[in-house]
Amino acid sequence: MRTALLLLILLALAAAGIHMAAPDMLSRYLPSVHNATPAMQAAPPLAPPSPWVCGVGRVEPASEEIDLAFEYSGIVADVLVHEADPVRRGQVVAQLKSDEHKARLDTALAEQEAMQAEYDKVVSGARQEEKSASWIVVQRMRTLMDNARTEMMRRQTLLHQQIIAPEELDRAVTEYKVAQREHEEAMQRHLVTLNLSRREDILMAHARLQASRSKVAEAQAALLSTQLRSPLDGTVLRRYRHPGENVSIFFPSPVLRVGDISTLNIRAEVDEADFNTVLPGQQAYFTCDAFGDKKFTGTVLRVTPMMGTKGLLTESPTERVDAKVIEVLIAADTPAGLVTGLIVDVFIDTSPQPSSGVFKSKVSVTSAPQE
Fold first, then answer.
1. 309 lies in the same domain as 321
2. Are residues 151 and 285 in the same domain?
3. Is residue 355 assigned to a domain?
4. Does an H or E element contain 235, and which?
5. What angle do CA 63, 314, 330 make, to 5 degrees?
6. Mean pLDDT to the nearest integer, 164-175
7. Is the pTM here over 0.85, yes or no?
8. Helical H runs in the chain?
9. pLDDT at 370 > cutoff 50
10. Pairing state of beta strands 324-332 and 92-96?
11. Taking the CA atoms of the chain, what radius of gyration do you get in angstroms?
12. What is the CATH number of the domain that holds 234?
């Protein structure tokens, strides 16, 4: 047991000694950097770094791809376009079922009509028929008041002649006072019909009218929101929903994807080690397996000012999926034959003075990078 323990201690000490001496072991057999041999000094310099920056890109419309979705949850009533159909800006491309929204609009319109009639009535005052009717009531009350006064005076004379009891006179006086008050009340009502409405009543009626108009506008906007319209002139790239399917605002549920494919761009991903060499205006070309050796040319439009994670994967076993990249947008010179979503290999010429003539010669000679 002691022998085994002693051997383990010796092995540990030997391993520690080798580890500490390892960095200096190789330097004993190599020439010093500061004391280069004649052979090292006579060696030719290494080739300059290549001006080409490579990356993976994806073809996309110049307008980018736009997913269209409704502002409200509901059931799709109809999708009016199909994939590859051209669309115009403002064109209705899909509709939701809108029976509930139409009913709300009809209710709001009816309330607006009622508030408009009330406002007109307050502003205009009473009608001529109402004024005439109130004056007739005033005349009737005046006649009753005159009769009650005459009866009161007659009973006063009879009381002086001691023909009737005092209670009879008291009853006549009370009837006269009641008739007098009723005549005054009728006169005040008649004056109300003659005068315009109060300012406060007009303002209140106007406020109710404005509120009803706002409800109509809200209902109209909600009804228009059941129609999905294209925001640009372009082409339908993908159709996601069909009539009868449910859409919701609580989770992504696009109906269509549209884009302007008259002009195509390449959105390429450049490794973080090369991003500072890529500038707008530089020339580039890209290839893909579908076109064989054909090279499509383009120009760098802009470089995004933000690093991100790699999004385009080539499924190569040696690919670094955790690499940081920056997006570079390249305008294709001749996009004929390309389709959006196509994955391509991108090569950007970062030479100090790129020009179209020099660039074309570089693409054709063997100095261009091999795909």
1. yes
2. no
3. yes
4. strand 234-239
5. 30
6. 87
7. no
8. 2-25, 38-42, 99-124, 128-160, 166-194, 199-224, 356-364
9. no
10. unpaired
11. 47
12. 2.40.50.100
Helix (H) or strand (E) holding 247: strand 246-247
Looking at residue 128, its amino acid is Q
Q: Do 85 and 165 belong to one domain?
A: no
Location of structure tokens 């403002």: 90
Domain containing 284 — which CATH number?
A: 2.40.30.170
How far apart CA 79 and CA 248 sit, in angstroms, is 16
Whether residue 275 sits in one domain with residue 181: no
Residue 284 — φ and ψ, nearest 5°?
Answer: -150, 165
Kind and range of the H or E element at 141? helix 128-160
Environment class of 269 (CB within 10 Å of its CB; exposed 0-12, middle 13-18, buried 19+): buried
Whether 371 is covered by a domain: the verdict is: no
The tokens describing 330, both together, are: 């390249």
Can you tell me the distance from the alpha carbon of 185 to that of 357, in angstroms, rounded to the nearest whole number? Answer: 103
Whether residues 111 and 180 fall in one domain: yes
Instruction: Report pLDDT for 209.
Output: 92
The amino acid present at 24, given as its one-letter code, is D
How many structural domains are present in the chain?
Answer: 3
Q: What is the CATH number of the domain that holds 184?
A: 1.20.120
DSSP reduced 3-state for 350: coil
**Percentages of the chain per state (helix, strand, coil), in multiples of 5:** 45, 25, 35
Helical pair 128-160 and 166-194, crossing angle rounded to 10 deg: 160
Three-state SS at 287: strand
> What residues make up the domain containing 311?
52-62+260-364
Do 80 and 157 lie in one domain? The reply is no
Are 211 and 140 within one domain?
yes
- Cα–Cα distance between 111 and 99 in angstroms, integer? 19
Minimum mean pLDDT range among 32-41, 127-136, 234-243, 309-318: 32-41
Q: How does the average pLDDT of the chain come out, rounded?
A: 83
Q: Are 70 and 255 in contact (CB under 8 A)?
A: yes
Token pair, residue 89, equals 């800006």
- What's the first-to-final CA gap in the chain, in angstroms? 64
* 369 occurs within a structural domain: no
Local structure of 164: helix, strand or coil: coil
Residue 362's H or E segment, with its range, is: helix 356-364
